[in-house]
Write a structure and sequence with these properties.
645 residues; alpha+beta; Ubiquitin-like (UB roll); Threonyl-tRNA Synthetase, Chain A, domain 2; BirA Bifunctional Protein, domain 2; 4 domains; 8-stranded mixed β-sheet; 20 helices; RNA-binding
Length: 645
RNA sequence: GCCGUUGUAGCUCAGGGGUAGAGCACUUCCUUGGUAAGGAAGAGGUCAGGGGUUCAAUUCCCCUCAACGGCUCCA
């Protein structure tokens, strides 16, 4: 007998060799019907694998992540089986589960596989699923494994097997399909009740662009048809939040082929929104002791030779421009820090001056490959809400803490709860690729982690992700379609102070090297606005939205009064426009709602006579009559509450 | 940069070898209205750009550009 400990701490005595599935059955038949896989001593395995020793056991169902990935991993095999049925002779590479579904990388040879072929594959998948074929695990020797895929002529599997040790190779077979696989898998294909191929894309074998490009087929499956329908609805909803669509609809920004790709043009409403964000951040920074500087859009190539950027990124950047007579070379500014270093150097600095927090909304230009450009999130010209903090090594932790406070304040004000802080540290196996003393690194790495914990951030630590010049803390958020983007960043830098020979005079009257902290709470205004649009689905917070109030005269007869109301609201610093079109008020309301104007003020005979307005809030409806002044106070109070620290 | 898809009016899209259509938006007129679409008329397109096949190309073929979905990259 062996002892099985369940997550609730309860224990069961079962015969050696009992499977998780059998234990599930003994708990309840309903549970057994839903078990997809199990964790035995923390390792995810097939639910029907015999358990041989005392163990902790967790059963995975569709309701937990491990259950889902098991299901999707098995679904990848099912899709492969279906694809082979339609396209005999295709070569299969890898087919893992991903966050939402799974994919399989396939070498279709000469065959073109496109969206038009999805339906038949889905149909076959479901037919195969209905057969409830079991996923059968088999341990095979390396020799046998190689022999099987040599016979099948699948060089990708052979390459994978090549990298495996004899004795750790397993095959899984379901129906007529056998695949090299570590597992685990769901008990049988019958759990898969709905399948949808989502898209196809090119993907290099082993992610290396020197290798052959395979066809990656993305798909997703569900244990219920209705869940698939819900998921597809969710995708539709997400598409409506896409900042590229909303940006166009709301008149925020545009692109012009003639101006160049990746170069956004901010329209009046977008520019208004952006300037408001800048004003908001400028004010917050001012309170935190930042000073503002301004530097040009180009800088001598020598500046970037000194900073090291030329050597590291010069070939992959916009190439230098030269002066017509002298042939001097200038770079479009890819980053602001070298300029800021020179400002630091412009006068002697004392330890009493530190920290110096030098901020600039600096527009930078970076070459991005054409295939990489993406709305406002990935562009070639963008404005960073940049700042560089020059401080002593002892001040680093405190300063990083203050930056985190700033980021948290911003995220809170913008109602942005869903972000992850990624702490990027050195690769412990490769210490030589980093510059700066061990002592400083350790202090900085420890400092960043401590302060992130003190501030209560939800963090993940990534080893080896640090920049060569220092550790960093990045704020990651997701867009409407679930893609991850980096917004804010805090980076500690020992490199530039060295390269630019920055120094300050210490209390000991000796020269010391400052530490530099790069930080950008938004990251870039472009990317931030993009994420903000998707986050609030275009319905910006009242303090930020370009048009806070629209006045809707009931008929043209009241246009003069509407204009008067608008002017009066403007005098209270409220952004109000009025709709003077010859339309019925119902139409004007609809248009204002569609354009996401927060407040609508309906004015007609009664309002004109009483010097009042009838307020209506988007999504809520009629708020009743009130004086212009009390409406203005209401808006003002609402905004003040939003911006409270 | 690579693989795939797409490109028709300001927007969303239909069409299709015989030089274009709808809805919305826009302009004008009628209507002067009370909480999510009043009516009529009008204007607007080298069918992304270039080349080829053809009596004839927006339609078929090739190239370029751009956008989209990924991959690689990313200061």
């Amino acid at each position: 007998m062996i002892t099985i400990t369940l997550p609730d701490g309860s224990q069961r005595e079962v015969a050696k060799g009992t499977s998780a599935m059998e234990i599930a059955s003994s708990i309840s038949e309903g549970l057994a019907r839903n078990v997809l896989s199990a964790s035995v001593n923390g390792v995810v395995v097939d639910a029907n694998r015999p358990i041989e020793t005392n163990a902790t056991l967790k059963l995975h169902t569709w309701n937990d992540e491990d259950g889902k990935s098991t299901m999707w991993h098995s679904s990848a095999h099912l899709m492969a089986e279906a694809l082979e049925a339609h396209y005999p002779g295709i070569k299969l590479a890898i087919g893992p589960p991903i966050e939402n579904g799974f994919y399989y990388d396939v070498d279709f040879g000469e065959v073109e596989f496109s969206q038009a072929d999805f339906a038949k594959v889905e149909k076959t998948m479901l037919e195969l699923a209905r057969q409830k074929n079991e996923y059968i695990r088999k341990e095979v020797s390396k020799q046998d494994a190689l022999a099987y895929f040599t016979e099948k002529g699948d060089q990708y599997k052979l390459e994978l097997i090549d990298g495996l040790n004899d004795g750790e190779i397993t095959f899984y077979t379901q129906g007529n399909f056998t695949d090299l696989c570590r597992g685990p898998h769901i008990p049988n294909t019958g759990f898969i009740k709905a399948a949808k191929l989502l898209n196809v894309a090119g993907a290099y074998w082993r992610g290396d662009e020197k290798n052959k490009m395979l066809t990656r087929v993305y798909a997703i499956t569900f244990p219920k048809q209705s869940e698939l329908e819900d998921y597809l609805k969710l995708l539709e909803e997400a598409k409506k939040r896409d900042h590229r669509k909303l940006g166009k609809e709301l008149g925020l920004f545009t692109f012009s082929q003639k101006v160049g790709s990746g170069l956004p043009l901010w329209l009046p409403k977008g520019a208004d929104l952006r300037m408001r964000l800048v004003a908001f951040l400028t004010q917050a920074q001012k309170k935190m002791g930042y000073v503002q500087v301004i530097t040009p859009h180009i800088g001598s190539k020598e500046l970037y030779v000194t900073s090291g950027h030329w050597e590291k990124y010069g070939k992959d950047s916009f190439q230098p421009i030269s002066t017509p007579q002298e042939g001097e070379l200038y770079m479009l500014k890819p980053m602001n820090c070298p300029h800021h270093c020179e400002i630091f150097k412009s006068e002697p600095r004392s330890y009493r001056d530190l920290p110096i927090r030098m901020a600039e909304f600096g527009t930078v230009y970076r070459y991005e490959q054409t295939g990489e450009l993406h709305g406002l999130t990935r562009v070639r010209g963008f404005t960073q809400d940049d700042a560089h903090i020059f401080c002593t090594a002892d001040q680093v932790k405190h300063e990083v803490g203050k930056v985190i406070d700033l980021v948290l304040y911003i995220f809170k004000t913008l109602d942005f709860p869903d972000f992850l802080a990624q702490v990027s540290l050195r690769d412990p196996n490769n210490p030589s690729k980093y510059i700066g003393s061990d002592e400083n690194w350790e202090k900085a790495e420890r400092g960043i982690q401590e302060v992130a914990n003190e501030k209560g951030l939800k963090t993940v630590v990534e080893y080896g992700e640090a920049a060569f010049y220092g550790p960093k803390l990045d704020f990651m958020v997701r867009d409407a379609i679930g893609r991850k983007w980096q917004l804010g960043t805090v980076q500690i830098d020992y490199n530039l102070p060295e390269r630019f020979e920055l120094e300050y005079t210490g209390a000991d009257n000796a020269k010391h090297r400052p530490v530099m902290i790069h930080r950008a709470p938004f990251g870039s205004l472009e990317r931030f606005v993009a994420i903000l649009i998707e986050h609030c689905a275009g319905q910006f917070p009242l303090w930020l939205t370009p048009e806070q109030v629209r006045i809707l005269p009931v008929s043209e007869k009241y246009n003069d009064y509407a204009r008067k109301v608008a002017t009066e609201l403007n005098s209270y610093d409220i952004r109000a426009l009025f709709d003077e079109r010859n339309e019925k008020v119902g139409k004007k309301i609809r248009d204002a709602e569609v354009e996401k104007v927060t407040y609508m003020l309906i004015v007609g005979e009664e309002e004109q006579a009483g010097n009042t307005v009838s307020a209506r809030k988007k999504g809520e409806g009629d708020l009743g009559k009130m004086s212009i002044e009390s409406f203005a106070q209401k808006v003002d109070a609402e905004i003040k509450a939003m911006l409270a620290e």
